[in-house]
Amino acid sequence: MADTEQSAVTVAVLGTGTMGEAVLAAVLAGGQPAERTLATARRPQRAAELTERHGVRVVTVREAAAADVVVLGVKPQQLDAVAAEVAGAVREGALLVSLLAGVTTARLAAAFPGAKVVRTVVNTPAVVGAGVTVLAAGAGAGEAELARTEELLAATGTVLRLPEGQLDAATGVSGSGPAFVFAVADALAEGGVGAGLPRAVALQLAAATVLGAGRLMVETGTHPALLREQVTSPAGTTAAGLRELDAQGMRAALVSAVMAAAKRSAELAG
Ligand SMILES: NC(=O)C1=CN([C@@H]2O[C@H](COP(=O)(O)OP(=O)(O)OC[C@H]3O[C@@H](n4cnc5c(N)ncnc54)[C@H](O)[C@@H]3O)[C@@H](O)[C@H]2O)C=CC1
Ligand SMILES: O=C(O)[C@@H]1CCC=N1
Q1: 48 domain-assigned
Q2: Quick one: 86 and 117 in the same domain?
Q3: Which of 13, 26, 61, 224 is deepest in the core (most CB within 10 A)?
Q4: Are 44 and 132 part of one and the same domain?
């Protein structure tokens, strides 16, 4: 989208919680002017916080729904109530960017008649511009809506298109994935404490290790199995640790965790 075109567009985040606020910040970082950007809040204190942090106007849900681009950031379980509240307020041809896990473009299009729907899965590292977002267009949307959404979300991190049928699986890997990685980081630190490190040092080492391992994998494009081999000396410390991970089923547990999250995403379709 050209700068002049972008500046004429009103973008509203309807449901500005953890993910809605992350996307709001990314949209602003991408060049959308704050004076044409709206948010919703259910408590006055939250409204003041959003205005102070981002310089945006907090409006009613119906006013947000009437924007050119509506980013929907409520929980899947809150969709029906919001759709009822904004019935008739969404403009014909408006772009509806959904952040909702599991909810299909078909259901969103039925809930917001006339809107062009793009379904996305963002993840919380978007807060620091290191997220990965996947997206798919609904039946009434196409290249223009996908490109506009990619541009709006560019500051979240990496953005890639997938067939909608793969979004539940992607939710398991990248949507919920940060929680699984945080569980690993927490356990790494706990192990460090068990082995005698002060907790603050153990946490610092665990966080830096997760960051470094991720960067090494992304920046070299090397398969993680090979990177793991590069750490593992014959009869060394890593081989001893990896034997424990195998014996205690860490790999199987993570595979099951991702598949359970993907299954739950599909269930949230409603
Ligand atoms: N948190 C995460 O890591 C991810 C979340 N998502 C999806 O993002 C969406 C938002 O999740 P979170 O930000 O974690 O939840 P959240 O609970 O922090 O945010 C939801 C927001 O919607 C607002 N809301 C609820 N009902 C409303 C209504 N009727 N009118 C106006 N506002 C209303 C709430 O006040 C809250 O601010 C969910 O659909 C979730 O599936 C997707 C990928 C990752
Ligand atoms: O737990 C959830 O349902 C949301 C969707 C993916 C990450 N958080």
Answers
A1: yes
A2: yes
A3: 13
A4: yes
Residue 141 shares a structural domain with residue 226: no
Question: Does the Cβ of 101 fall within 6 Å of ligand 2?
Answer: yes
Residue 171 lies in a domain: no
79 Cα to the center of ligand 1, angstroms:
10
Instruction: Identify whether residues 159 and 237 lie together within a single domain.
Output: no
Q: Kindly state if the Cβ of 98 falls inside 6 Å of ligand 2.
A: no
> How many residues does this entry show for the chain?
270
> How many domains is the chain built from?
2
| Per-residue pLDDT tens digits for 71-82 | 999 999 999 999
Indicate which residue's Cα is closest to atom 29 of ligand 1: 82
Residue for token pair 């569980």: 183
Distance (Å, whole) CA 259 – CA 232: 28
CA–CA separation, 249 and 254 (whole Å) = 9
- CB-ligand 1 contact for 122 (6 Å cutoff): yes
């298109």: which residue's tokens? Answer: 161
Give tens-digit pLDDT for 120-178: 999 999 999 999 999 999 999 999 999 999 999 999 999 999 999 999 999 999 999 99
Domain C-terminal end among 166, 194, 212: 166
Q: ipTM above 0.90? A: yes
